[in-house]
Structures are given as C-alpha cells and as structure tokens.
Design a protein that fits this description.
Layout (H helix, E strand, L loop, with lengths): L6 H9 L5 E3 L4 E7 L3 H18 L4 E5 L2 E6 L9 H15 L1
Antiparallel strand pairs: 1-2, 2-4, 3-4
Helix pairs in contact: 2-3
Amino acid sequence: MIEPLSEMDRAEALDGLPDWDHDEARDAITRTVVFADFVEAFAFMTRVALIAEKMDHHPEWKNVWNRVDILLTTHDAGGLSGRDIELAEAIDAIMGE
C-alpha cells in the first residue's frame, strides 16, 4: 500500500510546487494550465499521459478548449502521496521547456 504524506512532508512538498494549490477537502493538489489553443492543450495532455502511464499514476483532469485543469491525489493512499509530487514535478518540467 502507498502511504500518504505526513503533514510535514506535505507542507515541504507544497513549498516546492508554487504553481499548485492544495485541495484540503480531497487532500489533493490542483493546477490550471492555459495554452494558446486546443492543439497545444491536447499536445500537453499527450505528453503528460505518456509520463503518467510510465509512472502508473494517472491524473484526474479536464480539458476545455485551451485550458487543462489537473487534480493529483493517490486514491490507494487516501490522499496526497509522493507519487503525486513526482507527477507534479514532471508536469512542471514540461511547462518549463
């Protein structure tokens, strides 16, 4: 079983993810990313999907035209885990390219 992050680990991880917000109700992190158009948004989602599949950890997300809303939580852990932080960092790396 995957362990959820402790309060201290969660706070430290969130400090390193300034573009993400903590959803306390779901013990998750969220981020909205806006692109120039649908094609760019879909290309981003495709890149994230390939990484998520390799990690065997998949985001909850929604795409409306040029916007992608992302929510990361680990259902098996009942909240935020290191897997979510890893995926968020990978997403941030894509955004920084």
